Amino acid sequence: MPLSWATLAPSLLSDVAWGKADPYLRLADGTGYVDHLAAPPQDGAWLPVSVQWVDKANKAVIDDMVVLDAPAPADAWFTARVKPAALSVLLTHPAVQRVQWAEGLLAQRPRTQYATPWPLAAGKPPPPRPGRGTPVLLGVIDAGCPFAHADLRRAGGATTRVVRLWDQQGGPADPPPQWGYGSEWGEDALNALMAAATDAHGRVNEHLCYMRAGADQVLGRTSHGAHALGLLAGPRLVDGRPARRDKPPSRLLTGEVASADIAFVQLPRKLLDSAFPPAVEHHVLNGLRYLVDVAAQRQAARLFVSFAFESWLGPHDGSSWFGQAVDALVTEASTRGVALSLTVIAGNAGDDGVHRTVASVPAVAPDTGHVATVHWHQPPVDETVTLLELWLPDGAAPADLTLSITPPGDAGSLPPVAWGDAKAWPSATAPAIAVVMDRSRTLGVNADVMVLRVSPTQTVAPRRGAPHGEWRLELRSAQPLQGLHAYIGRCTESMNSPPRGRQAAFTRRTAGERLLDRQGTLSGFANHPAARVATACVSDDWIYRGDQAPAQPGGAAPYAGFGPSRDGVRPGPSFGVVVEHGLYHQGMVGIGNRSGTVFRMVGTSVAAPLGARHAASQPEGSPEPRPPPVPPERLREVGSSVQDPLPP
User: Fold this and answer.
1) Cα–Cα distance for residue pair 461/535, rounded to 1 Å
2) Among the listed residues 5, 20, 201, the one whose alpha carbon sits nearest the alpha carbon of residue 98
3) Strand 136-142 to strand 302-307: parallel, antiparallel, or no bridges (unpaired)?
4) Could you tell me if 488 and 310 are in contact, meaning their C-beta atoms sit under 8 angstroms apart?
5) Beta-carbon contacts of residue 167 (< 8 Å; ≥ 6 apart)
6) pLDDT value at position 152?
7) What SS3 state is found at 346?
8) CA nearest 499: which of 379, 604, 352, 348?
9) In the predicted model, what is the mean pLDDT of residues 549-567?
10) Angle 277-297/321-335 helices, nearest 10 degrees?
11) Does pTM surpass 0.90?
């Protein structure tokens, strides 16, 4: 029986012209929101979206739409919550340029719940009070804030340096008034938690503090956010290199940064359990706006933010909704007297096989035209959705472009999908794969994109799973197809999330075909001009290196994402930080969730807080030594010594 496609018929947005909506919303609506948390949205449900107004247009007031933290008049980018009826109005409004779907993906299995209730804080914690703070505010958007840790306390050890904590997941405290969701803690409330958990000898029961705050991300031994906080704001650096007589195992750090105020944004657990880039962008922009508000309220002239999560999808040319919104926010913050510096990571996609550049070749007779072929492997026992994006330069997608997909096995190929179609196989209500082949200017404004969504290969009944194995994708056109970039989204779980995902990757069929294409693997968040992009480097004295070690001394780490961006505007990362000191001393040692606990973490996630700290340590008004990006084999950290990534 031949394979056949089913057409994606709108289930909720039947009267919408899809030019302003991103392909992910079209996929979600056409398949009944089967892979999303809202499945399907009810009439009273509030759905998260990210919006861009038409430049200089009068801002519309739409019923059943709540704008989160109304932007400045000159700012055209904002986030909102809408009801299904309002979503249709928004997508057809003349003042709207882009609407991005930001509802998270549905995990196949629920997160494990604790068997006993937590002893939450008694009564409602007091709201944060306004007050002047330090001239420098250190901001972190991450997962896990051990506010009671000894390295994050003020002199004397009885109070915390964390002046604001916004848990976007929610908790015992009230949400920030201007946002309406999550749970916000001020320094008074956090200090009260610490005081209530302090014994007669002055020892703080940190675990009890976190339980009463409902902070499940720091109930374990380690967390991603704790490590970042220690490197960005801690008063000491634990030396993770081999022991040397002239190098103590740890050293104290002095200066303004070691005592500066800290503000933390805890990302929702749903984003960490099943990554979906548009949902991450939505909450990160909210977090950045929140941190700017805190800095302005506390009269901090400089705000340094570290954001160490990554996306492997997106236009990779600075034209994404997120990139342009961040650029506008930097300008907006300056008008409020806050100099915002955002450091993001280059990403860890350098050797994962998730990026390919593909050129078409003439078709074999008797066919005509040109063919571009891509193969990828869909792993078994994978409980996460796999997302693929195919990007063609603006105007390079011809009208006769077709896409053919061959699933694993011997059943044959699916019929070609024509440009402008939206299809699913084997059905729209239970799809193994869904495809949108339509011009969209939502994910990026400079290119045409085709989006594929592959269902998990292991599912919970009655959900249909996709076959695992090697998939084949073929683009065919009468004209040559040049400049095609293919990306696979990240499928693996975040730290402290249940292990669910196994990473899909591109494969090669000929000996001359490149398996890894490191160029263009910068994180999707790292291509806009305002970001300081940090990558991980290898020390000059890379020990135990051996002849076959996959790293060059002093160069970028082999796993580190690199440029250029797809449009060539950004050659690569802004700078590198040495975090790899040997095959047995990889990564950096940082703090865990409890005082006295340390652990070693590898990846460009280590480079972002170190790079942000370097910038924060520069005297106000002095130019930061930022050399232009260089090729990966010559990339060095910013600073005078490749051995000391932090200033004294």
Assistant:
1) 42
2) 20
3) parallel
4) no
5) 173, 182, 183, 184, 185, 214, 215, 266
6) 94
7) coil
8) 379
9) 74
10) 0
11) yes
Q: For residue 282, give the nearest of 244, 248, 326, 237 by alpha carbon.
A: 326
Cα 262 from Cα 379, distance rounded (Å): 41
Q: How confident is the model at residue 448 (pLDDT cuts 50, 70, 90)?
A: confident
- Polymer length in residues for the chain: 648
Nearest alpha carbon to residue 434 among 13, 23, 19:
23
Please state, in angstroms and rounded to a whole number, the distance separating the CA atoms of residues 400 and 359. Answer: 17
Q: What are phi and psi of 399, to 5 degrees?
A: -65, -25
Closest CA to 261 of 210, 186, 194: 186
Q: Dig out the tokens for 533 from the structure.
A: 């992009």
pLDDT at 118: 67
Q: Give the helix ranges, DSSP H, for 136-242.
A: 187-196, 206-212, 224-233
Please choose, from the candidates 493, 497, 587, the residue with its C-alpha nearest in 3D space to the C-alpha of residue 220. 497
Q: Is residue 235 within 8 Å of 155, Cβ to Cβ?
A: no
Residue 253 has pLDDT above 90, yes or no: no
**What pLDDT, on a 0 to 100 scale, did the predictor assign at position 59?**
67
Fold (CATH) for 355-507: Jelly Rolls (2.60.120)
The pLDDT, as a whole number, for residue 635 is 47
Q: For residues 487 and 509, give the distance between their C-alpha atoms in angstroms, rounded to a whole number.
A: 18
Topology of domain 137-350+522-634, CATH = Rossmann fold (3.40.50)
603 sits in the region (left: phi over 0; alpha: psi -120 to 50; else beta) called left
1: its two tokens: 């029986």
| CA 104 – CA 48 distance, rounded (Å) | 9
pLDDT of residue 237: 75
How confident is residue 648, by pLDDT bands cut at 50, 70 and 90?
very low
The answer to whether residue 607 scores a pLDDT higher than 60 is: yes
Q: Which two tokens stand for residue 354?
A: 């998730």
Six-digit token string for 34:
């089967």
Segments making up each domain of the chain, as ranges: 137-350+522-634, 355-507
